[in-house]
From TrEMBL:
Membership in a protein family: Belongs to the cytochrome P450 family.
Lineage: Eukaryota, Viridiplantae, Streptophyta, Embryophyta, Tracheophyta
Organism: Olea europaea subsp. europaea
The protein's required cofactors: heme
A Pfam family this chain is assigned to: p450
Protein name in UniProt: Cytochrome P450 81F3-like
Record-level Gene Ontology MF annotations: heme binding; iron ion binding; monooxygenase activity; oxidoreductase activity, acting on paired donors, with incorporation or reduction of molecular oxygen
Subcellular compartments: Membrane
Membrane topology: Single-pass membrane protein
Alphabetically ordered keywords of this record: Heme, Iron, Metal-binding, Monooxygenase, Oxidoreductase
Length: 112
């Protein structure tokens, strides 16, 4: 069994400027094979994720919908704890708990 350390590749300061800084725009327009395998959220090669095409299209749509259709708030005054937990899929150390309130635009979109 081969486990590739993607975390190390995607946080490598030799490849990325400010590699530990949250800068999602750094990934815009990147593709794994074309861009030297710097970014591989879906793995690569014959056992790479067959759902990549669907996921790339649907994640933005789903995320955009929950942002557009709900107002989001923290439950308390503290900022969201972004600490990393342990595990192969890098879970959050503390689960995210947030409060959402439907916005009128959502009611219009989802009512029949
Ligand atoms: C953001 C969404 C997703 C991410 C980040 C993701 C990521 C991954 C990764 C990293 C792998 C392992 C690839 C490897 O071993 O090199 C994988 C495998 C797989 N994914 Fe996804 N995936 C996503 C969505 C989906 C969707 C939507 C489907 C199906 C509709 C899917 C179906 C599969 C299957 C069947 C495998 C196993 C492939 C194999 O072992 O041959 N994934 N995915």
């Amino acid at each position: 069994m081969l486990l590739v350390n993607l975390w190390a590749i995607q946080n490598d300061p030799k490849i990325w400027d400010d590699s530990r800084k949250f800068k999602p725009e750094r990934f815009e327009g990147l593709e794994a094979t074309r861009d030297g395998f710097k970014l591989m959220p879906f793995g690569s090669g014959r056992r790479g994720c067959p759902g990549e095409g669907l996921a790339v299209r649907m994640v933005g749509l789903g995320l955009g919908s929950v942002i557009q259709c709900f107002d989001w708030e923290r439950v308390g005054k503290e900022l969201v704890d972004m600490a990393e937990g342990t595990g192969l899929t890098m879970p959050k150390a503390q689960p995210l708990i947030a409060k959402c309130t439907p916005r009128p635009v959502g009611a219009k979109l989802f009512s029949v």
